Amino acid sequence: MTWEVASFLIVGAVILAGFAWYERSRPPAQVVALVAALAALAIAGRIAFAAFPNVKPTTDIVIFAGYALGGAPGFAVGALTALVSNFWFGQGPWTPWQMAGWGLCGVLGALLALGVRNAGRVALAATCAFAGVAYGALLNFSLMATYGGDLSLRHFLVLEARAIPFEVAHVLGNVVLALVAGPAMVRMLVRFRERFEWQRRSAPVSPSSRRGPSLRSGGLAALLVAVFALGALLTVPAQASDVSRGVDWLQAQQRPSGGFAAAADREPGAEITCWAMLGLAATGRNPLDVTQGGNSPVDFLRTHIDEVHDAGDVARTILALEAAGVDPRDFAGQDLVERLLSERRENGSYQGWPGSSAYAVLALRAVGANVAAAPTVEWLRKVQSKEGGWGNLPQSESTAEITGAVLQVLAPSSEAAKRALDYLRREKRPNGGFSPGKNLAANAQATSWVAEGLLAAGKDPTGFGDGKSSLAYIRGLQAEDGHFLQAPGQDVSPVWVTAYALIPLSAKHLPLDAPPREPKPKLPSDTSSPRSGGVTPSLSGIPPSVDTESSPSPALEALESGAAGTSPGASAPSGKGSPGALPAIPPTAGRVPEEDLGAAPPEASALQYGEQTSEPATDDDDENSSTAGAIVLGLLAGSVLFAAGLAGRRGWMRWRYGL
Fold it and tell me: Is it the case that residue 362 has pLDDT exceeding 90?
């Protein structure tokens, strides 16, 4: 059993345990009605704030429900909210993680009630802030479990670092709502609960004894969670993931010169070395830390800069260097960015090829030259075919792989991107793959390119269009030793194909950010100069490739990192294309399913419904009148705060990506 499967089984067990806990508590009809009403309120809040990434009142409402009603009802409110609201936002592998995360937020609220009997604004706000951080951490871990990769702290921290803006937005939204409306909403829920709770008794019961039944049932749930967590730790190392096996095999193919060759019987070259660097970076391994004989891939590129000839070669080299954290403006005595700009034609294209032009845009965006990329994007829009795709040449028949490359440079909401997605839906094969041409069979490279384009457009390659999952198609081509076949029964250029496949399987698309360096590299790389340089392979002779999707993401929105691609070129029956460079991804690439963050601790709470009493609760008129107003004021405050954040984000995207 792989650690990914084990983690999903644990999440499923937590969900089942939470609902079993709720059912076993035999909630009265009033509690069932209140749970449904609170879940509906949380769902409505999530939908109403859909325009504000990660700013949702959902987490706060679930915590307030757990604080006022107990751990079991709180868990039910959170889990039901995630399940039902995703009928609007989209169901996927992220749904069980969101159900467990929000359900545990309800348990967290119950734990707060155990420790703080009359929680004030500060206590509620602090709890909601912690829930936002914990929920985000859980959803980031779900990306590792869903899309594979190394099960390592370094990989997790990379995802956490990329999610910081979304985590901050979620935490701030939680804090603002809790400060403005938290106490009023909690008082309202507590009064409602106390009105219908009753119990025959002759003497007052101490607060500690009132928690007795809850502690017993909560302890059972906590025990179940602890057992499942222990099982996860035992099963995690059972089997390496497909991405881990693939990157281990790829790294083992490095030559003493630091470079990579397409196959064992060929000499290493700059082109394949660049693709290998992108595949390594997509999985979280910085190419500068991958050495053989004391040489890194960057060292190899520096000594083979003469292999960089046309615009496609330059663009690919820039993408590979950026993925290693090396400055392409000062590499091997050349300014590769200026060299690329000098290759642009008057009409805005590079070599007159859509594939090379798309990769040039990705390379320019990787170095922050967004304004310089705008004319090329405009040219790509003009040469889009009537059927919605792009081919090797502006007038040639559209292909899925070149369309996937161009899709990475388009704004996901643009009309051109929508037409391209419609074209790709029609081109998808029943087995989940995509082909480099209408009369050719599907292969790993073309499917990888398409998958990267889908991720950049915020689509999930596993569920896009009809037929099977595109990512599953790629995984099905993996051999026992970890490398990937080009197609069933076709083992061609395994290094090249494996590098292509690793990018979408790691839920990445271009351009890629440089992974963090290892604290103690096995063999130190050349750091005598602030930046090292590299050579980009020529695009000619490179088979186009396309691949998988993202969620989550959030995720799904959220995580964002780049993915490697192949150079687009004129596709021939052999699968090779003339022009091409790596596709770059818009900042909105999908990784994450939905933009909500925040998780609660895995321990179950002991708080249930509280003691039932026949004594009516006292009502304060001023509290009654302020409840609705406080909730509305909190929602308005959150809207204003994150409308400003959204405006800032759009401004940043316009400056950074020219969108």
Answer: yes
